[in-house]
Design a protein that fits this description.
Helix content: 25-40%
Distance between the termini: 16 Å
Largest sheet: 7 strands, mixed
Oligomer: single chain
Order of helices and strands: EEEHEEEEEHEEEHHEHEHEHEHEHEHEHE
CATH class of the largest domain: Alpha Beta
């Protein structure tokens, strides 16, 4: 086993470099994973561009990355569920298991979670990671490690679909066609929603949404999005709206687009953390609002959906960068958000 490994670190705002660090050794309940792919998340880009998200502040050198998959190269003495050679997707948050949220099953709300690439805890832009074996999910033979790295954002999409109560025969609209909007659209389709519409202002992203299974798209820069959605539904509106853009405009469009008694799921974060909503109309429609914070109990289901071909998660990735090109990967992901829907780093 290697004694040292290479890690990519954020050294300052908009700056990446490499350092050599000790290779981790797995504890008794952990496995050591040779990382093969890591997705670049919107949170990674936000930390890279601003150095913080709310009260979470990066102190360089800091390792970004939390959407990851690879191969097990060593196992702790108490690990029974995995063996050397297994390919795994890593669920990035290790919770306390003792608080009221963990004990009730809502472990994504644990206040003491240790989550990759969330300060002060480093991430997975590095060659090896030691992680709790119970949070490493074996990939079927027909699911690649690139797809395995995309299970993390897909889990957010499935959680959003679950919060919406998505089921067969419903209609839905997803506002925002970034990576989370795309996986939410695919999760809704996998749940049996009959028609899913996608709204954005970037045409290339909307074309990708159609490629991945959207039934129709709406370019809000070119048409009135609410009017077009109503035209698509013969004036009825939809059963579900999922807001993933973090925009006040789209948040209120969601209220206008749904039927009375419907559900609006809020996923996107606004830049300020605040949006003004048309609550009078929401009350008149007796809408239910749900929110999404990461996910819980989703990985096995998401992996199975990919394995069964219900979700084309490989198609989500538009750009792959080599580990040695991490600076360009981060720069282009931040500068070219209109074209790069989801980028991934090939670590090894």
């Amino acid at each position: 086993m290697k004694k040292t490994m290479k890690a990519a670190v954020m050294t300052g705002i908009g700056a990446m470099d490499y350092i050599s660090v000790d290779c981790p050794e797995p504890k008794s309940d952990q496995v050591l994973v040779k990382i093969e792919y890591v997705g670049i998340c919107g949170s990674d880009m936000h930390y890279y561009e601003t150095g913080r998200i709310g009260s979470y502040i990066v102190e360089p050198p800091f390792v970004l990355g939390h959407e990851s998959a690879g191969s097990v190269v060593a196992v702790g003495r108490d690990v029974k569920n995995l063996k050397v050679g297994d390919r795994v997707a890593l669920e990035p948050g290790e919770t306390c298991g003792k608080c009221q949220y963990c004990r009730s099953g809502n472990y994504n709300l644990c206040p003491d979670v240790v989550f990759f690439a969330t300060p002060p805890y480093g991430g997975t832009f590095q060659e090896y990671v030691a992680h709790n074996a119970d949070l490493c999910f074996k990939l079927p033979d027909n699911v690649s490690t690139l797809a395995g790295a995309m299970i993390e954002p897909l889990a957010v999409g499935f959680h959003a679909a679950g919060q919406a109560g998505a089921s067969f025969g419903q209609t839905a609209v997803v506002l925002g066609s970034g990576a989370i909007g795309m996986v939410t659209m695919m999760a809704l389709k996998a749940k049996g929603v009959s028609r899913v519409f996608v709204v954005d202002i970037e045409q290339k992203r909307l074309e990708k949404a159609l490629e991945l299974g959207a039934d129709a798209v709406i370019n809000g820069r070119e048409v009135d999005a609410v009017e077009q959605l109503m035209a698509f539904t013969n004036g009825a509106g939809v059963d579900i709206a999922v807001e993933t853009a973090g925009s006040e405009i789209t948040s209120n469009q969601a209220i206008h687009m749904v039927k009375k008694g419907s559900t609006v799921v809020m996923v996107g974060y606004s830049a300020s953390g605040k949006v003004n909503l048309e609550m009078g109309l929401a009350i008149d429609k007796e809408l239910t609002f749900k929110t999404v914070f990461r996910y819980r109990h989703i990985y096995p289901m998401a992996i199975e959906a990919v394995a069964q071909g219900k979700v084309n998660i490989d198609g989500l990735v538009t750009d792959i960068f080599e580990f040695e090109d991490i600076q360009r990967a981060m720069d282009e992901s931040c500068r070219n958000k209109a074209d790069i829907v989801k980028a991934a780093i090939k670590i090894c």
